[in-house]
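Example record used in the benchmark description.
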Amino acid sequence: MDDLAYEVENEEAQASHDADEKVPSFLIGSIVAVGSLAFIGILTETVMTVLFPSLMQEFGVDTATVQWVTTIYILVVGAIMPISSFLKRRFTSKSLFVFALATAVVGPIIIYFSSAFWMVLAARVIQGIGAGIATPLMMNIILEQSPRSKVGRLMGVGSLVITVAPAIGPTVGGALTQVMSWRMVLLLTIPILLIISLPLGLKNIRQMVAPTDATLNAVGFISIVLALVGLVLGVNQLGSGISHVVAGSAAAAQLIIGGVAFVIGLAALLLFGVSSRRSFSPLLRLGWLRDPISLLHVLPYLLMPMLGIGFGYVITNLGQLGMGCSALVSGLLVLPGALIGAFFAPVGGMLYDRFGARGPILIPMSFSLLALVFMFVFARTLSPFGLAFLYFVFGLGYSLSISNIMTDGIAGIPPQFTTDGTAVFQTSLQIGGAFGMTIFSTIIAVAQAGHGVEGTADYAQATMVGGMWVFATMILIALAAMICLFVAFRMRAKRNGEASLEHGITD
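Model output (structure tokens):
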């Protein structure tokens, strides 16, 4: 009894200590500095989609070509994120921050003065490098420097950046293009970076762990870049080719390129895994993924962003092509769900800190799933208001749960592998988002094929049918993610129960 009373008093004292823990002011400044940089980096990923018509007219390129403005950005971000663990070990956080901010400033300047389309693509490559550094850096700072009792809510703040930025991109782009030229849109980000992010970062970012003489594993780097480029390019080209075939256009070249790229991507991913296991200094240490609980957290973090990021494309296109809304109104349909995400992402982290993982993750995901079911059932008769409302419900559930998936997954990783875990989770998010946009755009394009031209009633109805197919696909994706997490929680509970039993026998 004395031992039990001592344990209870100990837990109460620990709980009181956790409640009294305060977030250092320098950490708040660091999160704002790096978070605003990451926010702008992710925002420009989707804001450019609204600028496509202007770019096509300015440079005389077609739809397939102008898509590379977004595709090449996603590829670069996806290629940089896996080496974020190496960069964090090799360089100081402040130097990485300054470099990433410099790319975010230089990119828009090049775009503003671009006289050819290839210059825009080059600028997007530069921007992608900075964005690929900024987001994992923000997450690593939070995980490394946050008080233990505040990790969940601060990761929720970090998730706010990741989930809200791509969602409001179309809204911001649609509004700004009404009052200024497309060249000025990205240029507006520079004052924010130089006036807010840079001073705060220089003052507050601190180095908790000294850099090491880590060396870049060339085989690992080349193989992961080939894997990511191959997989994203493969899915992109296969999706585009399928939509062209259904529409009756020639697409043999796209299908061949897509198939070859996808096979190369899979082979390179296998090579990366083998080289990581055998290398003395791997680019990413992946041994922690042998724990099925960790793997069952990574998979949902790949699947759910397919929905969260893909919705930005789906809603704006259903609004414009299916419901006859303007570009501005279609962008505004995303705004309520994005705003609720901005408010509730930190709330989800607070619930995680207080109640653990199972309820704060699975219950909100159930709300998101329910919203998708209603979207599917009423897809062909949805009004703009109905679509915005259901996305609002989806966004509420998504924002409450998404950051907790990563937080809980990394909580089960040994501390020395935290940076590797962050890199894997953030790369999964980017790849999931890219896959989602491609898969959903292909589904809608297939539904539209053979139903006239944009603006006709038949074309609009076909678009809404495509939306119904998309929502059905989203339901399956959400179910798969929830099943993975449910199994992970059951396995953890069983493991903890066995550990408690062994402890009791030992005592």
